[in-house]
């Protein structure tokens, strides 16, 4: 006799009995069940075989070409500020209007290159972060993790120095917010 994998001692007698048993289970206990992040209060009840992954609706807010054009404009401003040795203002401009609401990797990479340029140009980490507006802390932490993911030795060294100082200034909550926010990915 074949036994059910969820309850010991329940024998499967017929196709109808198996279907009724399967339908009686809540699928949010199974690994195949997906619960949309915006609907945590309601549970998904569906058949295991019929359960399709639920994705929250994602709407592109802007055209990719407009985002790339905006990043190119920011690049000119940042380069001018870097020549004037105004690193904090350059970093604020690079972080301003970061393309977090798009899925286009070209837009995200273009802005990462700009932020990376500022991070690698600065030598005074303390001065950079003490003068930085606090609204950019969480976004900067996300870019630091992206820099660490590159595996490039100089980039990782600079990102680790900045991570240490940013954690001292912004606290552990900054790390948690950067890691927990999966919607606004840089």
From TrEMBL:
Q: Which GO terms describe its biological process?
A: Arp2/3 complex-mediated actin nucleation; regulation of actin filament polymerization
Q: Where in the cell is it found?
A: Cell projection; Cytoplasm, Cytoskeleton
Q: Which UniProt keywords apply?
A: Cell projection, Cytoplasm, Cytoskeleton
**Record's keyword annotation contains Transmembrane:** no
Cellular-component GO terms for this entry: Arp2/3 protein complex; cell projection
Q: Does the keyword Transmembrane helix apply?
A: no
What's the family?
Answer: Belongs to the ARPC5 family.
Q: How does it assemble?
A: Component of the Arp2/3 complex composed of ARP2, ARP3, ARPC1/p41-ARC, ARPC2/p34-ARC, ARPC3/p21-ARC, ARPC4/p20-ARC and ARPC5/p16-ARC.
Do you know which PANTHER family this protein is assigned to?
Answer: ARP2/3 COMPLEX 16 KD SUBUNIT P16-ARC
Summarizing the function annotation, the protein's role is: Functions as a component of the Arp2/3 complex which is involved in regulation of actin polymerization and together with an activating nucleation-promoting factor (NPF) mediates the formation of branched actin networks. Arp2/3 complex plays a critical role in the control of cell morphogenesis via the modulation of cell polarity development.
Recorded protein name is Actin-related protein 2/3 complex subunit 5
Q: Which organism is it from?
A: Marchantia polymorpha subsp. ruderalis
